[in-house]
């Protein structure tokens, strides 16, 4: 009989320990991406771009615009338990960042090839570093070269590139699902953070593809973020959670707040959608809470249908243990049963309050004979001539390019320097303003308003006639932007009545000096004394309601309707003249309406003259004027795209009288018929 073989206990090599630990934290590419996204958010990023190849196995790259990593910290970047977010164990009780153990990048570097390009705002250069096995190595992963970061060109922020994930763990590599399945998991993770993080814009696409699989902008509403990620079917049936009724009881068990959105009882969906749950801004799963909420839906949804649920819970940090699982996917918190009961009651009361208007789907009984054979299902093909390739919610890369301070199209007079200031808002509501708002509401052109709300700006077509193009759905439109802007600014004036910003003028010219150029070129004008006297007689009202401040016969300030829009100072003489001659100060409604119309006219950009090719060159004055006009054209185009059209999407009601100012000039099906492509 053989004696059993005995084995002595030996200490595992550190490389084996690190690889085992890494395998617990990074189970699949989606786990690695989750850690990288959280690092980017911790860095204060407002933009996170993700590039994926072969489901994240061959390549997983994330680029952000956060505060970057200092060159001195790159040596320890991938060392285990090296972190800037935690100093002692007690700090876990108040931890507010996603990361805290210093294991994520270390784990990734033990099972993949990791490279970093980073730049801080205070650094003149970016630095690139390579990591293997938790250690800084030479350039291009050369372990024999000098291990130090190398200076390179780059923008503020950090780009982390993970290549050949699980290259040294063949069994884990084989256990992964197909590349498409792994990519779907990555999109799911990105989508969940895109829904939750209001101040961060996300994009994700496959390597080699031009279009984004997912793209969101920062500061977009919750409903819009859910629409982009989950689709319109869910977004159209969303309802916001009600506020906690017994806040004292909730606070006593450590529940500080509950926010989120859920689908109403009208939403019918046979496919399960995993709830999106964040606790203290951590993406987590909580089985008991999920089961309790789904049980509440049992009384509202027909059998076999499933809801969409997004919840964000704020729980007293000292009551939450975030160090339960290596992936940080699970958390534990005190008073779990009480908190689950409060949240479930909140969901149930929200559903109950919206259930009175519930829509029950019905099916019409058709009169055709039962024996009539059913037609075989036909395969649906994508119709290229009806495909909308541009979405109004998508941002352009040029949006990230900063503009110079002097690029505003209205800064044309060097003798007048302007600045703006804020004042406390007032709640003054005159009956005349209410009447004007009601009058506007009765004249709204609903279909044109819907078109403008969902328009994608294209560009200026004719800056002299002040025409621009935009796209809606598969249609191309031409519009008179001067007419639209005059109405937009008038509507802003109605909304901001008695709450305008102040646009200070320097030097403070007298009314006579401002009007002088006008009277020098026109002989049939109303007497300057009449204009001056009319304005001085009404200066108190003009200042209180419109921030048109006249002191000692000098114009001190004019209204500021938006912080990114300034008026043309060339129009000031006409503005002052019209205030003194075109306003009926005896009738309150007419007076307020006419002043608002004059303010709107002041802000409408001037027509830019088109250069005459016959003029040629050779004149310094003509060359200077041409350069200035070119700058003005670019500025008008940029202001229209990044200020005016976003403003119109938010608050513009197109009146019926503007129907002739917006015309359709082409559509995609028509272009396909002519050109057979587009």
From TrEMBL:
Domain DNA mismatch repair protein S5 span(s) in chain numbering: 226-352
GO (cellular component) term, any one: MutLalpha complex
GO terms, biological process: meiotic heteroduplex formation; meiotic mismatch repair; reciprocal meiotic recombination
Source domain of life: Eukaryota
Compositional bias ranges of the Basic and acidic residues kind: 620-632
Keywords, alphabetical: DNA damage, DNA repair, Nucleus
Compartment(s) of residence: Nucleus
GO MF, one example: ATP-dependent DNA damage sensor activity
Annotated region described as Disordered, given as residue ranges: 354-380, 613-632
The keyword DNA repair is assigned to this record: yes
Composition-biased stretches (Polar residues): 361-373
Subcellular location, principal: nucleus
Keyword DNA damage: yes
PROSITE patterns assigned to the protein according to its UniProt record, in alphabetical order: DNA_MISMATCH_REPAIR_1
UniProt xrefs under SMART domains: DNA_mis_repair (SM01340)
Assigned protein family: Belongs to the DNA mismatch repair MutL/HexB family.
PANTHER family the record matches: DNA MISMATCH REPAIR PROTEIN MLH, PMS, MUTL, DNA MISMATCH REPAIR PROTEIN MLH1
NCBIfam families associated with the record: mutl
Name of the protein described by the UniProt record: DNA mismatch repair protein S5 domain-containing protein
């Amino acid at each position: 009989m053989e004696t059993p073989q005995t084995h002595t206990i030996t200490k595992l090599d550190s490389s084996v320990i690190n690889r085992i630990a890494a395998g617990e934290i990074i189970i699949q590419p989606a786990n690695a991406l989750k850690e990288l996204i959280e690092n980017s958010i911790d860095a204060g990023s407002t933009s996170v771009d993700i590039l994926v190849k072969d489901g994240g196995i061959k390549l997983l790259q994330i680029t952000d615009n956060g505060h970057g990593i200092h060159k001195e910290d790159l040596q320890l970047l991938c060392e285990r338990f090296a972190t800037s977010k935690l100093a002692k164990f007690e700090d876990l009780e108040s931890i507010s960042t996603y990361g805290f153990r210093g294991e994520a990048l270390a784990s990734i570097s033990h099972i993949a090839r990791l490279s970093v390009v980073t730049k801080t705002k205070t650094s003149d250069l970016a630095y690139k570093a390579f990591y293997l096995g938790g250690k800084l190595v030479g350039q291009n992963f050369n372990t024999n070269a000098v291990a130090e970061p190398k200076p390179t060109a780059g923008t503020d922020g950090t780009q982390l590139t993970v290549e050949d994930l699980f290259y040294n763990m063949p069994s884990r590599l084989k256990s992964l699902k197909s590349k498409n399945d792994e990519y779907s998991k990555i999109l799911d993770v990105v989508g969940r953070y895109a829904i939750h993080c209001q101040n961060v814009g996300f994009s994700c696409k496959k390597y080699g593809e031009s279009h984004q699989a997912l793209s969101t902008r920062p500061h977009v509403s919750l409903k819009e973020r859910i629409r982009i990620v989950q689709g319109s079917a869910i977004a159209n049936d969303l309802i916001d959670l009600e506020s906690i009724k017994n806040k004292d009881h909730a606070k006593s068990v450590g529940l500080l707040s509950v926010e989120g959105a859920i689908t109403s009882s009208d939403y019918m969906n046979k496919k399960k959608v995993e709830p999106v749950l964040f606790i203290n801004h951590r993406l987590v799963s909580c089985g008991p809470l999920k089961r309790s909420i789904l049980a509440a839906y049992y009384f509202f949804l027909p059998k076999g249908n499933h809801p969409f649920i997004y919840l964000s819970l704020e729980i007293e940090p000292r009551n939450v243990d975030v160090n339960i699982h290596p992936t940080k996917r699970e958390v534990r918190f005190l008073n779990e049963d009480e908190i689950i009961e409060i949240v479930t009651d909140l969901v149930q009361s929200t559903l109950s309050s919206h259930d009175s208007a519930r829509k029950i789907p019905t099916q019409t009984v058709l009169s055709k004979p039962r024996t009539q054979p059913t037609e075989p299902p036909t395969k649906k093909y994508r119709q290229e001539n009806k495909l909308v390739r541009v979405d109004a919610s998508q941002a352009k890369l040029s949006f990230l390019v900063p503009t110079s301070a002097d690029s505003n199209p209205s800064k044309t007079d060097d003798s007048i320097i302007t600045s703006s200031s804020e004042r406390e808002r007032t709640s003054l509501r005159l009956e005349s303003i209410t009447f004007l708002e009601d009058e506007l509401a009765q004249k709204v052109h609903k279909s044109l308003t819907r078109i403008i709300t969902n328009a994608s700006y294209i560009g200026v077509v004719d800056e002299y006639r002040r025409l621009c193009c935009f796209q809606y759905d598969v249609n191309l439109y031409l519009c008179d932007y001067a007419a639209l802007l005059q109405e937009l600014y008038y509507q802003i004036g109605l909304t901001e009545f008695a709450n305008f910003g102040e646009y200070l003028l320097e030097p403070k010219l007298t009314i006579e000096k401002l009007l002088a150029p006008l009277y020098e070129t026109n002989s049939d004008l109303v007497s300057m004394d009449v204009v001056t006297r009319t304005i001085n007689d009404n200066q108190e009202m003009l200042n209180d309601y419109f921030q048109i401040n006249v002191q000692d016969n000098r114009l001190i300030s004019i209204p500021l309707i938006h912080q990114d829009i300034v008026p043309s100072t060339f129009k000031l003489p006409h503005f002052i003249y019209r205030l003194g001659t075109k306003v009926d100060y005896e009738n309150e409604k007419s007076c307020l309406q006419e002043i608002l119309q004059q303010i709107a006219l002041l802000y409408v950009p001037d027509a830019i003259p088109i250069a005459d090719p016959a003029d040629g060159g050779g004149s310094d004055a003509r060359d200077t004027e041409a350069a200035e006009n070119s700058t003005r054209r670019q500025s008008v185009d940029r202001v229209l795209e990044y200020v005016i059209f976003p403003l119109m999407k938010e608050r513009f009601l197109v009146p019926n009288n503007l129907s002739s100012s917006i015309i359709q000039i082409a559509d995609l099906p028509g272009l396909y018929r002519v050109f057979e492509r587009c």
